[in-house]
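Example 9 (inverse folding). The structure is encoded as follows.
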């Protein structure tokens, strides 16, 4: 990938001398002048620590399985059984304050998506984001001027039709299957050194790391075919109105994080590929998660989640450790549910959040294996629906919950666990 100089503008970018000023161009002229003054008056700010502008993915996210992130674009069509909203593992960020901009034509109708170089709302965002993030406004404006609306991306984030049943057996069959198991074993064999080091350093078992990367991208075979810039701009400025809630504030934050990441990595914003929701690399980190939790695990001085399996392995282990993974405890235990409906309701009320001591579950009529009663922490009764058939249940530990901080789906967590176990021959 080539580097972009911050003062380069595309030849087709409108200028005051050649064309009437678009909102983005007018904003660019105003904020570029302010940028130059600020640069003369103060020293450059210290480099922002990775992820300083984004909070924990788990900090305010609900515990429920109701908002599910399909692992990849390619996988989305096969996870109808686990219906719900995508990108649930990330933070709902506040809308940035809009800065005042120059006089501009009216913003295109909400029914007329795209045209980001001509929109006043985008121009205001460019001015505000450039100032807050200490980015060259010309560079930010150039990037947004090249973003293209993608209708398929907008459709992809819509939930599945109401009444679509979840089905763990169907979901499992898409991820714990011969192709992925074979790829998992090859990945494990090729990267055993890094997997062992990650387990030693962070306490996350090798098979969990292997299972997670396999569910996400089949070890880099399906990292997404969208331009990240297009996907994030589409969802930041043209989030579909038919969605149950407007998540454009989150995607505007991720667009900011993506631009910061491109600056730090020396990338042109139009070059990186992503999932339909802007997730990047082998482990499908959102840009904010990359900047906060990705690590240079191979020690080459560069974090590369696209081409470095070592960095992907270390980053996944680091992420899980930062989200509550505990050494040397199980992810879940078998469980038989109580016959009493009221007791079952009490156990199900906290959803997948570990809440009960093993003895408390027993007191409510749940039956656990002997090993579960020596578990030092809390448990959750996790329900895995099977369409019209009887559901399955497991008692999830803090480590099960940690996997759901990556993707808030109990089915996703079980697929990660079982793919890793299958690859290890267990």
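The amino acid assigned to each position is listed next.
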């Amino acid at each position: 990938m080539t580097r972009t100089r911050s003062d380069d503008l595309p030849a087709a970018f409108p200028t005051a001398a050649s064309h009437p000023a678009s909102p983005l161009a007018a904003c660019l002229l105003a904020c570029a002048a302010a940028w130059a003054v600020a640069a003369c008056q103060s020293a450059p700010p210290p480099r922002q620590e990775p992820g300083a502008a984004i909070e924990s993915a788990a900090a305010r996210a609900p515990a429920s399985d109701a908002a599910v992130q399909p692992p990849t674009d390619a996988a989305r069509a096969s996870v109808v059984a686990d219906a719900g909203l995508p990108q649930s593992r990330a933070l709902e960020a506040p809308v940035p304050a809009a800065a005042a901009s120059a006089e501009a034509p009216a913003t295109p109708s909400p029914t007329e998506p795209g045209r980001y170089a001509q929109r006043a709302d985008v121009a205001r965002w460019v001015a505000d984001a450039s100032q807050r993030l200490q980015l060259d406004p010309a560079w930010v404006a150039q990037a947004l001027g090249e973003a293209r609306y993608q209708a398929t991306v907008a459709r992809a984030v819509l939930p599945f039709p109401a009444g679509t049943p979840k089905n763990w057996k169907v979901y499992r069959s898409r991820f714990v299957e011969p192709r992925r198991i074979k790829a998992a074993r090859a990945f494990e064999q090729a990267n055993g050194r890094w997997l062992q080091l990650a387990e030693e350093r962070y306490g996350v078992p090798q098979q969990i790391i292997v299972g997670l990367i396999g569910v996400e991208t089949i070890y880099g075979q399906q990292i997404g075919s969208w331009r990240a810039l297009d996907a994030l701009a589409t969802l930041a400025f043209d989030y579909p109105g038919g969605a149950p809630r407007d998540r454009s504030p989150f995607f505007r934050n991720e667009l900011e994080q993506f631009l910061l990441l491109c600056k730090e990595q020396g990338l042109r914003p139009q070059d990186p590929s992503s999932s339909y929701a802007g997730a990047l690399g082998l482990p499908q980190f959102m840009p904010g998660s990359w900047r906060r939790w990705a690590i240079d695990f191979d020690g080459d001085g560069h974090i590369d989640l696209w081409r470095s399996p070592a960095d992907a392995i270390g980053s996944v282990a680091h992420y899980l450790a930062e989200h509550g993974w505990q050494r040397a405890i199980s992810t879940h235990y078998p469980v038989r549910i109580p016959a009493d409906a009221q007791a079952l309701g009490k156990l199900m009320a906290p959803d997948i959040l570990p809440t009960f001591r093993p003895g408390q579950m027993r007191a409510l009529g749940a039956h656990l294996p002997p090993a579960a009663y020596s578990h030092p922490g809390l448990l959750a009764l996790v329900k895995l629906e099977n369409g019209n058939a009887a559901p399955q249940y497991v008692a999830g530990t803090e480590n099960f919950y940690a996997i759901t901080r990556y993707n808030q789906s109990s089915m996703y967590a079980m697929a990660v666990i079982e793919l890793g176990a299958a690859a290890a021959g267990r």
